[in-house]
Amino acid sequence: MVLIVFLLAYLVRRKLDSSGHFSGDALWRAWFHRGSRVHAGAETSVGGGLALVLLPAFLSGLLEYLLTGYGIRWLVYPVEFIVLVAMMGAPGWKRVLRAYSDAWSRDDMQGAWHHVRDWLPLEERQEDSSAESMHLSLSRAFMVSIFERYFLVAFWFVVGGMPAAILARGLVALAEQWPQAAARPRFVRWAEWLAWIPARVVSITFGIAGDLAGWLSEAKGLLLAVRKPAGELLAESANSALTGYALDPERFLKVHPDEWSRFGSTSLGAVRDLLNRTMLVWLCAVALLVIAGVV
Q1: CB distance 233 to 207 below 8 Å
Q2: Cα–Cα distance measured from residue 251 to residue 246, given in angstroms and rounded to the nearest whole number
Q3: Among 6, 130, 174, 267, which is most exposed with the fewest C-beta within 10 angstroms?
Q4: Any idea where the domains of the chain sit in the sequence?
Q5: Are the beta carbons of 4 and 78 closer than 8 angstroms?
């Protein structure tokens, strides 16, 4: 049932993302509003944030334990479905990427930047940045967002069920949205710890789903870089697994200068296709694990 529940939740979540409905980020933001006020000098405290994530994780585990103990395990499955739909999802990206690609095709880089600036990391929102660096920042931000809201949740759901999925997604939400900004760096570090194994599994899957020969040429440096952040690992892995310089704008411009106006949409399309194929590989892998009786 793990595969069936996740597959149904994934399909529903993709539909919601396409229509731009029901953001899990809004749900976490409303939940974290309880931590908007702290005593002076306690801005770096992480206890309140952790409690707000551990509480739903604990309650979900307790509910599963009780339902199983009373012999009504089947009631856990709809609860898991609801939890996965709430934990996954990245609505809004479709609209932003379309507007960005349209502006890029018109050679309106200023307009493209205005469309995506709020979706980029704070340290990468320089208005005077080049088109190449802007595109790489956007591609990396998009991949990280999909990784944290789909692959990270999927990995920990398969490994540890609802509590682990809620904890992993909750730490990401704390790193991005906890009202006390001074405490966020610690949440970022903990979220990176939970992402360490899933990010490397995704990296390997990029090679399977993309250009395996190209990925293998960089595999040793990627997988042995134990301190490399998940975002950098995903971006470099995707670059090695994609053909046609999809994530190398400088090389693309030199080789195909006449097609530069199409690079924005072509590159993002290649990244989306790679992520979709990667999720398909994950679903097949989970199916094999279910058949083997591992999960």
Answers
A1: no
A2: 9
A3: 130
A4: 1-32+46-292
A5: no
How far apart are the C-alpha atoms of 19 and 118, rounded to whole Å?
20
The predicted pLDDT at position 41 comes to 59
Q: What percent of the chain has pLDDT over 90?
A: 68
Query: What phi, psi does 5 have (nearest 5°)?
Result: -60, -45
In this prediction, residues 196-217 reach a mean pLDDT of 95
3-class SS at 23? coil
**Cβ-based neighbours of 17, under 8 Å, separated by 6 or more:** 89, 90, 91, 93, 94
| Residue 242 confidence class, pLDDT cut points 50, 70, 90 | very high
Buried b (16+ CB within 10 A) or exposed e, 161-193: bbbbbbbbbbbbbbbbbbbbeebbebbeebbbe
Q: Where are the alpha helices (DSSP H) in the chain?
A: 2-19, 24-32, 47-69, 76-87, 93-105, 109-116, 131-146, 152-177, 184-209, 212-223, 230-241, 249-255, 263-291
Cβ atoms within 10 A of the Cβ of 242, count?
A: 21
